[in-house]
Amino acid sequence: MSSGEARHFGLRLALWYATLFVSGAIVVAALTYYVTATSLAQRDQQIIRSKLGEYATVYTRGGLRALADTVHAEQLTTPERLYVRVVDRGTEALVLSSREGWDPSTLETASLLLLDGTLVEVGKSIETRLDLLRRVRAALGLGTLAIVLIALTGGWLATDAAVEPIRRLTAAAGRIVRTGRTDERVPVEASADPDDAISELTRLFNAMLDRVEGLVTGMRGALDNVAHDLKTPLTRLRGTAEMALAAPADPERYREALADCVEEADRVLVMLDTLMDISEAESGAMPLQRKPVRLADVAARAIDLYRDVADAKDVTLASAATSDVEVSGDRVRLEQVAANLIDNAVKYTPAGGTVTVDVARDNGRALLRVRDTGVGIPTDEQARIWERLFRGDRSRAERGLGLGLSLVKAIVEAHGGTVSVDSATGQGSTFTVSLPGAESRTVARE
Predict the structure, then answer these.
(1) CA–CA separation, 260 and 34 (whole Å)
(2) How confident is the model at residue 441, as a pLDDT?
(3) What is the mean pLDDT of residues 385-414?
(4) Residue closest to 53 by CA, chosen among 148, 116, 105, 121
(5) Can you name the residues that pair with 85 across neighbouring β-strands?
(6) Distance (Å, whole) CA 144 – CA 167
(7) Mean pLDDT, residues 335-341 taken together
(8) CB-based contact 307:418 (threshold 8 Å)
(9) Beta carbons of 127 and 106 less than 8 angstroms apart
(10) Which whole-number Å values give the CA distances from 415 to 217, 281, 398, in the listed order?
(11) What share of the chain is helix, strand, coil (3-state, %, to 5)?
(12) How far apart are CA 12 and CA 19, in angstroms?
């Protein structure tokens, strides 16, 4: 949304707000006028009917003269004049009040037929009521006009203030698109209501930018590492091939060169396959053949695979696994987890050291621990060892891809678990994998 579109959006909001506000004001004004007019009409009718009953009683008791005296006396003392007419048993009508100043179009009357056939009619001018209603209409009109102006002004100011954060979001997104810089952030006012939807949207937008910037930074670092780690085997592969071609023709030399090329190609393929596995696990696309698996069997299988490697380095590989700990998971993938952790431990444990694999249960969680007495991991590197292709300074001395722990983390999290490390330089490391126990998964399904 451009700044112009944001303004148009704000204007539309202001118009919608003003329309609703004005419509409500008009309805209120119409109801007020209706209630006022109805009340005044009912008041006039009550006055007319009250006087009609009173005059009929006077006429019945004292005749026409008594009625005339009563009407004349009231006209002298009462500011509100009434029109009174009597029709005596079909004879000519007698108007007992003054004939002057009466407008038939503004005269509201009521009549009563007495038992002797006499008709008594009382009327009242509604000019005062009409004049009052005109004033009410004028006042309501001015009030409605003022409400319209207030609604338009207030609506514009309110919507402008409400749309301002959206404009800031739009401007920030536009700057990111134009410059490609992901370090742009939208400022959040300190006084903003934390439950406000716009403030929450701004915070989420900034959090999204933080995530994007982290992903971009990680991607750049991963590409740098990929370029670095692929460059070495590819350079070695090319060098081997060039040396074989430059040397005198020798089938045995060619055979050795091809074997070296195949080895380097396999290294590259393993790296790419591992990267694909990590991406699938992190995105949730990795197919997992979940079955009840005894974690001790997984650990035993991995220990068997690396026992010869440990013996060759004079590293003691021990097991302290509990056989009754079960999880619901993919046996092959879990064996990858255990194998990578043991491989990592053996690789960085010097001769005479020990690597211990422990399986236990803790509050319904299945735990797989791999402890070593190796060189340990510096504190500033412990948070980064799970990153793809990250290799610390000490890791560079060992042959590897820098993907083993990243794959461990991805597979464990795909199983709904967590992995952590506790390490100190020169004091060894303990890697702990925590997985939901088979019982807890069964309960969750029920």
Answers:
(1) 100
(2) 42
(3) 72
(4) 121
(5) 95, 121
(6) 33
(7) 93
(8) no
(9) yes
(10) 27, 9, 30
(11) 60, 15, 25
(12) 10
User: What are the C-alpha distances in Å from 43 to residues 35, 36, 40, 74, 77?
Assistant: 12, 11, 5, 19, 20
CA distance 103 to 17: 47
Residue 197 class from Cβ within 10 Å (0-12 exposed, 13-18 middle, 19+ buried)? exposed
Residue type at position 249:
A
DSSP 3-state of 20: helix
Name the amino acid, one letter, at 143.
Answer: G
DSSP string, 31-93: HHHHHHHHHHHHHHHHHHHHHHHHHHHHHHHHHHHHHHHHHHHHHHH-SS-EEEEEE-TTS-E
pLDDT of residue 444: 34
* pLDDT tens digits along 260-269: 888 878 878 8
* Bridge partners for 328 per DSSP: 292
User: Tokens 């006209």 label which residue?
Assistant: 75
CA torsion 72-74-79-85 (nearest 10°) is: -60
- Residue keyed to tokens 């003022």: 146
pTM, two decimal places: 0.48
**Which amino acid makes up residue 223?**
L
Give every CB contact of residue 431 below 8 A, 6+ residues apart in sequence.
341, 344, 345, 369, 370, 408, 419, 420, 421
Q: Where are the beta strands (DSSP E) in 196-310?
A: 291-294
Q: Which residues of 343-371 are buried (b: 16+ CB within 10 A; e: fewer)?
A: bbbbbbbeeebbbbbbbbeeeebbbbbbb
d(CA 383, CA 394): 16
Q: Tokens standing for 196?
A: 């406000």
